[in-house]
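Hey, resending since the last one bounced:
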Amino acid sequence: MGSLFRSEEMTLCQILLQSESAYAIVSELGELGMVQFRDLNPDVNAFQRKFVNEIRRCDEMERKLRFLNKEIEKAGLEVVDQEDFPDAPHPQEMIDLETKFEQLETEMKEINSNQERLNRNFLELMELKHILFRTATFFDEAGQQAEFTDRDDQAALLSEEGRASAGNLGFVAGVINRERVPGFERLLWRACRGNVFLRYAELDYAMEDPVTGQEVHKCVFIIFFQGDQLRSRVKKICEGYRATLYPCPDSAAERREMAIGVSTRIEDLRTVLGQTRDHRCRVLQTVAKSLRGWEIRVMKIKAIYHTLDMCNFDLTTKCLIGECWCPVSDLDSIQLAVRRGTERSGSSVPSVLNRINTKDAPPTFFRTNKFTQGFQNIVDAYGVADYREANPALFTIITFPFLFAIMFGDFGHGLIMALAALVMIIMEKTLSKARLGEVSTIFEGRYLMLLMGLFAMYTGLIYNDCLSKAFNIFQTHWTVNFTVKDYNGDDPTLHLHPWSNFHNGNPYPFGFDPVSILLFCSFLAPPLAYLSVCLSVCLFVHSFIRSFIRSFIRSFIRSFIRSLIRSLSLSLSLSLSLSLCFSVFCVCKEFFVDYQMSRRYEMWNTLSYYHWKWSLYCLRLAAGNVTSHMPKDTNCYFATKAACHIQGPSAVVQTCEDGL
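The structure tokens again:
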């Protein structure tokens, strides 16, 4: 519970990893989750690091797993979630995983290509079947019109006898997308100058594109023309509009025979397509059972090699040197994890973990659980506290739901929210293993949602509000005896007087009296929302001012200490230099005792003057108030010296000021 009030105490450790046991040790530390490695190679490119080839292999395996996952989603299957997270595999197992993924990818691509080819053949056969049916219908309708109407030249032209008598009259049949038919028809009319005849009919249902899998609406068309020149022109136009042409016999008997053969091939192809889909579904079901475990294993392998790339490789000792931050309270468990990794790798040389001293700022680490994690995420969204500072999440556990309840304030809606959160808490073991997508954010804040619902129920009882309706539990203690005439009168306000309308001596037991909802609900609701907003703003301003003052005081103290140390060092150096000069002067003075006494005293006073001047300047520099004023009397130096001996150093500055 102590880490909830303040961040954990961190320490910097140096770990010496043997080459044969480095992978296993980092795997154990990763499972423990209490270590943050530092990158000791910040200037080295990612492609020039030691384990770049292993990371590339992991990237390739992740690509193959994404391909398999996409195929599973296309098939409409669900990936089975793992109950327990598997451990990181041994480095030698990477080869087995790569081989397995390569086989699955090759098999799936082969199945997809075969299925796409079969679907394309099936689509062509279906289009040919519709063409044979529609062209037969066109010719039958033309023949019937020729029998009943001899004057209809168009019907006679479309009949088989009319085409035979017309000489070199041919036709082409095919399929085109429905949205391209109007432009196709106009271009045929303009390019052929009206010498072709076009008939088309839309298919009854949409057909599936074998490449994209989307539904496409198509039309069957037949074009009649005369001459080889028009034939080549019509084919070029069909090719430009991506229309598919199919061979269509001239006689009805050949068309019927061809239609029977096409129907037989369609049935056989349906059987083959069904078997292909079943085989593909079985393969994907097998993959779906193990896909999550494979993804976790590959992610752990990649994370381990990323961590090993942060370490330095020592050529002399043939080992990896890494640095990591870890909590002081977990050093024993970290040592145990290092020992387990060494034993698991079978290395005979143990790895070493040592604490090192550093002046770098440690990272902030708050130990959380499933209850405090949601509140800690809210605080971290606004900013992470500095190392060993008080944790604001402790206060957020109460203030955040309470401020929400002041604004929300509904018993019914709060009850619904609390029940929904309670259901998620009861089913948290099942829901934590499922992939919830966007709902995962709500699931992570289930305990926050529960407190919000409970606080909203409490404030809803105070506000006397349930599902936006007032309820009367203890019966109102006021008597409302207004009539319709009073409501429709000229007086815009109606008053309840305590002496005449308050029939019970005791107030309402809990919350607002229900009569308040009738009288000033429109007046009471906005202030409650404003109150919540004001409290939130006050908390924000308080946090801002507290952070500003803390940072200002910290920076001020740091700058003051720096300037004080600089000033004291300057003053000390100047004082030592001047003292040395005085000592030299005293020695020299003994040799010139008999030489001009007045001259000697004048020099003494001059040196004293400059000594006092530099001392006062250093004191002002330390106090942050440097001036260029000089003392008016050199005897002030002796007054300063006397003050130091009699009253102590505290009187020096005042004496110097008096001297000014």
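The two ends are 61 Å apart (CA to CA).

Sorry for the duplicate.
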